[in-house]
């Protein structure tokens, strides 16, 4: 095949790939542009919370379907607000309008790396990440966030939180406030259930409600400067706790 033939074949492949991508879009492609601008502005003033806080706020403001958008972004490699901006926005480069009216800042570089082992200066250490767990390190603005997840596309991560106030995990008011801080809507009546147990010398605190998601599970040891925080839901919490036990065995 000559050069022209190869070029035509390559262009045809790109067009087919783009067509397939556009068919997956959960809303009009032009509606993504103001969303990316919103995230750009918001992330320039606030650090990513490693969740979809900003996306959820934007969806509420614009009356968009947050669950379907969040799921679509996960499928495209955007597991939080900053990863939407860092990993997904570039996929819309085919649009004639610039992706963002504000140019990305050099300091906003996001790096994502899979790790098999980890030893941190704040005292957390794991010699080998057990299967099916995956450990991802996401670095932004000289700050690194560590996230464990079950498999490649888990919607329920386990965050390694450094400097976490583990002494407050005995305080039910603190646990209630933490649960509310992770939700966009605050004006709901909630009846909390708090369970405590021990696994492999770790104290396990589970915070759940009878009607609402998510469920949060905290794994910690007294005297340490970190905590593992798992987010899950009723239909899978039992299996997730079994997998968490495998992970804690290696820490």
Q: What is the helix/strand order?
A: HHHHHEEEEEEHEEEEH
The helix content is 25-40%
Distance between the termini: 55 Å
Q: Which shape, going by the Cα principal axes?
A: globular
The chain-level mean pLDDT equals 83
Characterize the main sheet: 8 strands, antiparallel
Return the domain count. Answer: 2
Low-confidence segments: 97-107
Give the oligomer, counting copies of the same chain as homo and different chains as hetero. single chain
Judged by helices, strands and strand pairing, the structural class is alpha+beta
Strand order across the largest sheet = 1-4-5-6-10-9-8-7
Task: Characterise this structure.
There is one protein chain. With 251 residues, the chain is an alpha+beta fold. 35% of the residues lie in helices and 24% in strands. It has two domains: 3-106, no CATH class; 109-249, no CATH class. The chain is built from seven helices and ten strands. The protein has an eight-stranded antiparallel β-sheet with strand order 1-4-5-6-10-9-8-7, sandwiched between helices. Residues 97-107 have low confidence and may be disordered.
């Amino acid at each position: 095949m000559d050069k022209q033939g190869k070029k035509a074949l390559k262009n045809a492949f790109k067009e087919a790939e783009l067509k397939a991508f556009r068919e997956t879009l959960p809303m009009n492609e032009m509606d993504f542009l103001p969303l990316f601008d919103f995230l750009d502005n918001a992330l320039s003033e606030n650090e990513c919370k490693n969740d979809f806080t900003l996306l959820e706020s934007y969806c509420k403001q614009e009356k968009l379907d947050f669950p379907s958008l969040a799921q679509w972004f996960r499928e495209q490699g955007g597991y939080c607000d900053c990863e939407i901006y860092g990993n997904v926005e570039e996929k819309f480069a085919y649009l004639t309008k610039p992706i963002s009216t504000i140019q990305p800042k050099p300091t906003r570089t996001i790096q994502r790396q899979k790790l098999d082992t980890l030893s941190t200066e704040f005292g957390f250490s794991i010699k080998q990440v057990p299967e099916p767990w995956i450990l991802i390190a996401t670095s932004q603005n000289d700050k690194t966030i560590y996230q464990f997840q079950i498999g490649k596309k888990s919607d329920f991560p386990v965050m390694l939180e450094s400097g976490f106030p583990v002494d407050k995990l005995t305080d039910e008011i603190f646990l209630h406030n933490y649960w509310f801080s992770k939700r966009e809507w605050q004006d709901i009546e909630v009846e909390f259930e708090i369970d405590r147990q021990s696994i492999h010398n770790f104290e396990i605190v589970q915070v759940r409600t009878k009607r609402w998601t998510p469920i949060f599970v905290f794994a910690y040891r007294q005297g340490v400067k970190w905590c593992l925080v798992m987010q899950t839901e009723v239909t899978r919490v039992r299996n997730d706790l079994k997998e968490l036990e495998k992970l804690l065995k290696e820490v």
